[in-house]
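FORM 12-B: Structure-to-Sequence Request
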């Protein structure tokens, strides 16, 4: 008798774990999926479980509720979604490196400083000033370690200081032609651009056939490390949440129109409890009902969690609701998690891939957690961009402001930025150079 007891207890613990794990997986999957993907997930579950009943909701609204002429705004939302998705993909790799908290902060800071190609093109002096204003410690030594950490992320070439360095980072030092390829990249790219292949081959001490082979290898590298990611079509951003200002507060609700309603099938419930049915059938149906109930519960839990996270976010974003994206307040997932009594990973899953319909268009919910990582002054990148747009809109078209003059004008407003930062923001806003903006004649 005593020898049997340990075997029984062990079997009971294994049984409980096997029953709990799928339920947890269902909840995690449902929480992570945006509404459109959740609908497909539920339809597939319905096809494989006769105990699940599914009723399609009303067809999704076209255009996200905007006017017919809002196509430009919609396209802008998609470009923003793509940019933020790239940033999110890079941030998600940070925990894999298992860095100290301070090194992780430095790495996140550098990710936010990457240009649109994935290069770290800012000079060290500017990076160190920005880091100091962001409260980072360690100066040049910490910066050097952070750059090395950054260059360990995917895609390879990320964090190169120049296009040439990005190419070098993509090479494997163990490959047979490494020295030749490095020499080609470091010394001979300008000559190759002028199609001086014989001269390049002679300078490198190789024949033309070898040079052609090296160029074939070089063609597989990218001077723009993020190009392959950026070339992939960004998923259409649709709203999972809707928020609008009301008086001194706001109204928020979850979009249920694109997610089918799921419930347990009453007919299967009756059969599972009908004593006249064979025992094997009843046990089978009870198992199917249990799994169907996990899905129903997961969908309900997703809805409640998403709404709770949304309310916590916009309780802090009153200025955004009144004034627009330039007034987004920096926010961390840890802050929201602590307030709601959730794990930060739960908040991260609730935010991932979700869009929110705001008075200023559909924005990624993740955007409201990105502000803390944006380089720039303490006032935030959005406010700098807004101020820059106002200055250009009010300038004398016959004598438009140069980038140096814009730096001075922004400084008078309390924004301390470098000329290259102004040039970068101007490019992002689609504002031409002062030479291109100048109007001749009366104006």
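FORM 12-B RESPONSE
SEQUENCE OUT:
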């Amino acid at each position: 008798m005593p020898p049997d007891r340990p075997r029984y207890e062990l079997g009971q613990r294994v049984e409980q774990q096997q029953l709990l794990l799928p339920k947890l997986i269902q909840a995690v999957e449902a929480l992570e999926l945006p509404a459109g993907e959740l609908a497909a997930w539920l339809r597939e579950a319905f096809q494989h479980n006769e105990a699940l009943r599914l009723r399609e909701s009303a067809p999704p609204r076209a255009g996200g509720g905007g006017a017919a002429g809002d196509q430009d705004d919609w396209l802008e939302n998609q470009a923003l979604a793509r940019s933020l998705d790239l940033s999110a993909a890079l941030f998600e790799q940070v925990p894999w490196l298992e860095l100290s908290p301070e090194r992780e902060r430095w790495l996140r800071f550098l990710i936010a400083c990457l240009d649109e190609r994935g290069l770290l093109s800012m000079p060290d002096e500017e990076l160190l000033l920005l880091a100091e204003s962001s409260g980072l410690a360690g100066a040049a030594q910490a910066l050097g370690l952070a750059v090395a950490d950054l260059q360990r992320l995917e895609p390879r070439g990320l964090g190169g200081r120049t296009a040439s360095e990005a190419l070098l980072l993509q090479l494997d030092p163990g490959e047979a032609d490494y020295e030749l390829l490095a020499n080609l990249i470091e010394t001979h790219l300008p000559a190759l651009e002028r199609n001086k292949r014989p001269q390049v081959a002679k300078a490198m001490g190789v024949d033309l056939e070898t040079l052609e082979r090296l160029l074939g290898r070089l063609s597989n590298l990218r001077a723009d490390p993020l190009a392959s990611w950026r070339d992939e079509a960004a998923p259409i951003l649709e709203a999972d949440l809707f928020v609008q200002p009301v008086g001194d507060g706001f109204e928020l609700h979850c979009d249920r129109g694109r997610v089918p309603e799921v419930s347990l099938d009453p007919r299967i419930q009756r059969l599972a409890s009908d004593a006249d049915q064979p025992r094997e059938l009843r046990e089978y149906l009870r198992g199917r009902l249990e799994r169907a109930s996990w899905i129903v519960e997961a969908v309900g839990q997703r809805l409640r969690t998403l709404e709770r996270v949304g309310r916590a976010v916009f309780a802090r974003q009153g200025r955004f609701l009144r004034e627009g994206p330039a007034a987004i307040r920096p926010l961390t997932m840890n802050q929201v998690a602590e307030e709601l009594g959730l794990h930060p990973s739960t908040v991260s899953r609730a935010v991932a891939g979700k869009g929110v319909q705001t008075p200023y268009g559909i924005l990624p919910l993740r955007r409201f957690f990105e502000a803390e990582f944006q380089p720039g002054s303490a006032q935030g990148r959005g406010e700098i961009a807004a101020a820059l747009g106002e200055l250009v809109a009010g300038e004398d078209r016959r004598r438009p402001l140069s980038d140096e003059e814009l730096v001075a004008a922004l400084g008078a407003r309390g924004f301390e930025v470098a000329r290259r930062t102004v040039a970068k923001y101007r490019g992002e806003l689609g504002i031409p150079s002062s030479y291109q903006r100048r109007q001749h004649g009366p104006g």
